[in-house]
Amino acid sequence: MDIDGKPAQAAVRDGVLRLPGRFALHFGGELEGVELAWRLVGEQGPVVAALGGISAGRFVCEDAPAGWWRGIVGPGRALDSRHCRILGMDFLGGSGRTTGPVAGQGEFPAISAHDQARLLHALVAHLGIGQLGAIAGASYGGMVALAFAEGWPDAARRICVIGAADHSHSMSTAWRSVQRAIVRYALQKGDGPGGLRLARALAMTTYRSSREFTRRFSGEAQRLGDHFRFPVEDYLFARGDAYAASYVPEAFLCLSESIDLHRVDATRIRVPTTLVAIREDQLVPLADMRALHARLAGPAQLVEISSLYGHDAFLKEEAALRPVFEQLLD
Predict the structure, then answer these.
(1) Is the pTM higher than 0.85?
(2) Is 172 labeled as catalytic in the residue annotation?
(3) For an engineered disulfide with 187, which of 15, 67, 192, 313 has Cβ 3.0 to 4.6 Å away?
(4) 26 and 123: one domain?
(5) Are residues 241 and 298 in the same domain?
(6) Do residues 32 and 178 both lie within one domain?
(7) What is the mean predicted confidence (pLDDT) over 171-186?
(8) From the candidates 55, 139, 172, 307, which is the catalytic residue?
């Protein structure tokens, strides 16, 4: 605590790792002069790499207004930053400071979770960390954690994977394929942000549970001239507007596709692993998480939780995740 009785500000290091020369990509092709933006928060304890969905980035904790996991990570939170240091990074091909597409300049090369894992491994070496205490990966970040564990089994003591399996479910790929088609159509018409708004609105129906939608949006429709507006529409398109205002359409195409290209060989993963499955998750069915658990080569634990928030439980369920992260740091 500082002299005013307020929590002391955690030590923060920010930087950009510049990789000279060519960076060969998992699916072919290469990028020249890749830059990786990172942020390390905390003064002591093991380093935990915190990786989230495709719109998450290096700002993780409550020390930053833009911290995407600030309800879960921070002093006294489920992932308690008083006992570890939190490492975040902007994904390759995303909308952050790391190398990615430029709006209006065409699509970016295909990116794999294995490419993201390779960049994380390079960052760990650059920072002189030696070995990560853990990787806490949720959604796309969980895919990256699995790829990292497969490729560098001695570089992390353990991983925690929330709402991510060893491959994308075919129904989830179907939903995302339609989202990408909407964005590509809009880009052809010169309105990429408009397409991204619609794609994000559609995506929100897959992130949350039908139980939550029933509870929140079962009211009567409102007549507006010659048509009706349903209560759920305001929510969906507000989320779409916010996303389109801050994300590059081409970056969405790149990383959405990366999710559906995801494949790891679970039988090669021997790093101690904790899997967290959400029973109401439409995108990553419980059966897929159970099957992954059965195939993992190393010590593995499967934690099943229920959540009104479906796939987005990793952003909301602090109480359910607290014992998981306490064990992770033990």
Answers:
(1) yes
(2) no
(3) 192
(4) yes
(5) no
(6) no
(7) 98
(8) 139
